[in-house]
Each structure stands twice: as C-alpha cells, then as structure tokens.
Specification:
It is a single chain. With about 550 residues, the protein is of the alpha/beta class. The chain folds into 3 domains: about 1-75, Alpha-Beta Plaits; about 100-280 and about 505-550, FAD/NAD(P)-binding domain (3-Layer(bba) Sandwich), CATH 3.50.50.60; about 280-425 and about 440-495, no CATH class. The protein is about 25% helix and about 25% strand. The protein has helices at about 15-25, 60-65, 105-115, 130-140, 175-185, 205-220, 265-275, 295-300, 380-400, 405-420, 465-480, 530-550; strands at about 1-10, 30-40, 50-60, 75, 100, 120-125, 225, 230-235, 240-245, 250, 255-260, 280, 285-290, 315-320, 325-330, 335-340, 350, 360-370, 400-405, 450, 455, 490-495, 505, 520. The strands form 6 sheets. It has a 7-stranded mixed beta sheet. It has a 5-stranded parallel beta sheet with strand order 7-6-5-11-24, covered by helices on one side. A 4-stranded antiparallel beta sheet has the order 2-3-1-4, covered by helices on one side. Helix 3 (about 105-115) runs parallel beside helix 12 (about 530-550), helix 5 crosses helix 12 and helix 10 crosses helix 11 (about 465-480). It is globular and about 70 Å long. Mean pLDDT is about 90; it is low at about 420-445.
C-alpha cells in the first residue's frame, strides 16, 4: 500500500481517478483507495477543493514507488499505525477499579476496562445524558441551575455541550487517536471524523454516542451509577483503600481513576485536604466573540454561503506586548454562546454547535494566558479562586444572565483604562435585550446567538487589566488576518474561565499519584485539553491498570 500526499480533488471527483493521475498508472490497476486525511483547500478562493492524504493499494506497487524516489513528500510506502491494547498482567485485582467521572477520560477508561473483563465501577456526580439534556435546557430557559447536572457536570462531561470538536495536537505514535475516533464511529459518530482535518461530531450527535457507550459498558459487566458524588478518599499506608459516595456510603477499592473534569472544584479541595500532591498550573481566560458566519465564510472561502463546503472555521494566535499569548479557542462555526455555569452566583460561558452548524453566528473564545503569578498566592488551588472571582463579576454584571457588549465599546473602555482614566463608566439605561446601536437584527447589526438569557453590560470590567489589554491587542492582530474581526459591532460575552484545569494532580510514569492506586486522569487532572486528548489519556490509564493486573475470571 502506498501513501499519497497533497492530492487535490473537487467535491464530486473520483478519488480513484485522482490517485491514478498522481501515480501515473491506469485507473483499473488501483484496487482500493482509503482517505487518511481531508482538508478544505481555499488557497484559490472562491474556487475551493479538498486536499487529501490517501492510502492506495494497486498492482506493482514497488515499481510505481521507484518513480517517486526522492519525492517522499508526495508518495511513500504506507505504514498504518494499529492500536494494540497491552498484554494483560497476572497479578490478582482484589476489587473492581473505580472510575470517578464520565467525561471522555472516564468513559473511555471504563469502556476499555469493561471490554477486557475488569468490570469497572463508574461514579458520576451528575445525571445520565438523557436527563442531563433536560436539566441543561431548563437552565437555559429559566435560569434555574442544578449544581450537579449542567453544562459542566453529568454523563459526557463538559465536552458534550461544546460542539464535539475532536482535533488534538497530541502525538499519536501508538494509534490511540485513531482508536478513539474509530470507537466513536462504532457508537454512532459520523464516518468522516476518521479523516477530517478538523473533525467534529456536534452536540446533538455526541450525546447519543455517549449513551450507547454507557449501555455497552453495563452489558460488558461494568457498573454505572449516577448522582454518585465522591466526597472522600480513604488512604491507608500511602495507598487508596476506598471512596466515600454522597457522604455516607463507602466503596472499597485499591485502584481509583480520578477523571473528574476541570470544574470539580470541591473534589480538588477534598483531595488537597487528603494530602494528594497537586499544584496550580497555567491556563487561559477570556471572552466569547461573535461575528456573522457569513463574514467568516467570505474571509475564509471567498463566498458568504459556501454550500456543500460547510461553515468556515478559523484558528488564530498572537502575542501581546506584555508577553501574554492570545489565541482563539473552541471555535464554533454556526454556533451558540452557552451559559455554562455550575455554581450559584457565578457565570461562565462556553460555545457549542449542532452537527449541521447552521446558526447565523460564528463564535470562539479569544483567550489570554495566565500563570500562577496572576492568582494572588501560591496555594495549589489559587487558580480555582482566580476563576471564581472572574465568574462572580460576570454574574454581577449580567444579573445572572450572560453579560454581552459591543466590541467597540469594550475596546474604548479598555483604552481609557490603560491611560489612567476610569473604565467603570455608567451604561446608559436601555430596555432589556436592546443593544447599544440598534433594536433590531439587521444585515449590519449582529445580535447575540445564545443558549440562556443575555444582558447588555460592561464586559470590560470582568478580566484583569493586563488581560483586557492583551485581548484588545489580539483582536487588532486578528483583524489583519480576518477583515472585520475587530469591527466595533462584533459581540463579546463572558466569562470564558473553564478553558482547562487550573490544577495538575501529580502522577509518575506508572500513571499513579504518590498515593499508590490513585490514577489522575484527563483534563481535570491537568493531562489533557479537549475531548480526544482526554479520551486518549483515559485509554492510557486503562492500559496501565491492565498491564499490571489480570481481569476477573
């Protein structure tokens, strides 16, 4: 089999014919063509095409390959990476492994342990995804928050309500990335996620995938419990001995996978009190920015309505004069800004899209790097308190709704604040839901596209001054890359505070904490940054347990 790179083809072109033309062979000599990667090529916009990487099996491969000697950037021998679960260990596992959290890390760890006979127990503080969806919708419609069943907590984790983006920068020499994508496809995700350069499932599809994975875990002998919050960990002689659930139930276990997600602040505090080693880590905070999707399409594809090519996306990075990185994060084409709060009196936002990405607006978080030096003290949980302060300010400004502001007004106040003038200017009285410039949604006036109520407010008062200034510098830089990105009527809302975990729970090469039998895992523990990388980390922890211990008979 040969691997072909940089094969350009239109949406309706025959890939077999394109491969034959690249290899300069008759099309009938090609037996099979498989897509390895596909990306939209907009270098000659508005004339779009796809650029493919293809694996091709054909007659006389060695002879064909000789023609491309020295041009391995175009054609080379294909060596597909196959994922292999490790050879199982021989030690006796006295109790089933317990997994805390059913986001992608916990779900994949649990599924692969169940698949190989380990009968794991999965504990999720929130509800099953079917009930969780109803709780989230009710919160968006009424503002009534369930602290344990929301955008952050519940089966599927925070990623279940964030578009289902599956791209990752994690190196994949062992095939875990491909295995994660293949598993998602087996449980109902689109086949295209195996090869798209920027794969996504969509919130609507991902929830069904999660439900099917859970049912399979149970069929394979695993146990899944919802509304089961781990409130304590028993540690004897430096090893895990059990966990407390909902304060009064104890489950014995010698192997505890901690996959609790980046918003499990009470769990972090409980672990700290139990002297589990951890440290504050750098992350990023910022604001959601909305533009019309047609503007993004025009910039990226040269047309406002790209039709079969789908809504365009972007990825932007800059460095501010104060040294802080500024970059787009969790970009949602045709998406919504969502109220992603999980604590009373605090507002956090996120972004999501459905699988069709048909919404009128594009949004992404524009975020600014922060480090433990910004948190105010050296406590391991100082980053958590830093997040909470920002979320409390956002809640106050929006009176519990998502606070929204026109970017022009935001920028003016940040500039004034930077010159020594006050940024705490009075907002003119407006009828609720009416923007500063216009009371209607017209071609020239963009309106927020939110899940959850929003309120016009002075968003410039949420972030620290240094972050605000870096944000504005980043927006200016991005306006040079995408014309109109920093236009005054763009929309900013906040606060985007849950980009990644503010804590890293220490672990060694065996994937265990200094507390033996405790496996910090996934994004909440500080070892992942998104659905795919978290799932891959869950797979790594499952491998570590299986390599040492035998499954139950």
């Amino acid at each position: 089999m040969l691997r072909l790179y940089q094969v350009r083809a239109g949406a309706k072109d025959s890939l077999k014919e394109r491969a034959a033309r690249t290899l300069r062979v008759p099309v009938e000599t090609i037996h099979e063509v498989a897509i390895v990667r596909r990306a939209v090529d907009a270098r000659k916009k508005p004339q779009l095409c796809y650029t493919y990487t293809l694996d091709v099996s054909l007659e006389r491969e060695d002879k064909v390959l000789q023609r491309f000697s020295g041009r391995e950037n175009l054609v080379e021998r294909a060596y597909p990476t196959e994922y292999r679960f490790p050879q199982l260990g021989r030690k006796t596992l006295p109790d089933p492994p317990v997994i805390v959290g059913m986001g992608p890390a916990g779900l994949f760890c649990g599924y692969y342990l169940a698949l190989w006979g380990y009968r794991p127990i999965l504990l999720e503080r929130g509800k099953c995804v079917e009930e969780r969806k109803r709780d989230v919708e009710r919160f968006w419609e009424t503002g009534l928050l369930d602290p344990n069943s929301n955008v952050q907590f519940g089966e599927g984790g925070a990623g279940a309500f964030s578009d289902g983006k599956l791209n990752t920068l994690v190196k994949d020499k062992d095939g875990r990335n491909g295995e994660v994508l293949n598993t998602l496809v087996r449980f109902g995700a689109q086949e295209s996620i195996r090869y798209e350069a920027k794969p996504h499932i969509g919130t609507d599809v991902l929830c069904g995938v999660v439900e099917k994975m859970r049912r399979e875990i149970v069929r394979l002998g695993g146990t899944v419990r919802f509304q089961a919050c781990v409130t304590g960990v028993q540690i004897l002689d430096g090893r895990v001995a059990g966990v407390s659930v909902n304060g009064d139930e104890r489950i014995p276990c010698g192997h505890l996978v901690l996959a609790c997600g980046h918003s499990a602040r009470d769990t972090f505090a409980m672990l700290y009190e139990n002297h589990v080693p951890m440290e504050a880590k750098a992350f990023a905070v910022g604001l959601r920015v909305e533009h019309s999707q047609s503007m993004i399409n025009e910039s990226r594809y040269g047309m406002a309505d790209p039709g079969i090519w789908g809504a365009a996306s972007y990825k932007l990075t800059a460095r501010a004069s104060n040294g802080r990185g500024v970059y787009s994060f969790c970009m949602c084409p045709g998406g919504y800004v969502v109220n992603a709060s999980s604590e009373e009196g605090r507002t956090a936002v996120n972004g999501m899209s459905y699988s069709g990405r048909k919404g009128r607006n594009a949004n992404s978080a524009i975020i600014v790097s922060v480090t433990p030096e910004d948190f105010g003290n050296s406590h391991p949980l100082a980053g958590v308190e830093f997040q909470r302060r920002l979320e409390e300010k956002a809640y106050e400004l929006g009176a519990g709704k998502i606070p929204v502001q026109r970017y022009g007004e935001f920028r003016e106040r940040v500039v004034k604040d930077g010159s020594g003038e006050t940024a705490a200017l009075e907002i003119p009285n407006r009828e609720e839901g009416t923007p500063p410039e216009s009371g209607h949604d017209s071609e020239d006036t963009w309106m927020p596209q939110c899940k959850g109520d929003y309120a016009w407010a002075d968003v410039s008062r949420i972030l620290p001054k240094a972050c605000n200034r870096a944000f504005v510098e980043g927006m200016t830089a991005f306006g040079r890359q995408i014309p109109g990105f920093d236009r005054p009527d763009a929309l900013v809302s906040g606060v985007e505070s849950r980009t990644s975990s503010p804590v890293r729970i220490s672990r060694d090469e065996s994937m265990q904490s200094a507390v033996r039998g405790l496996y910090p895992c996934g994004e909440g523990a500080g070892y992942a940054g998104g659905i795919t990388s978290a799932a891959m980390d869950g797979l790594r922890v499952a491998e570590a347990i299986a390599a040492e211990f035998a499954p139950f008979a």
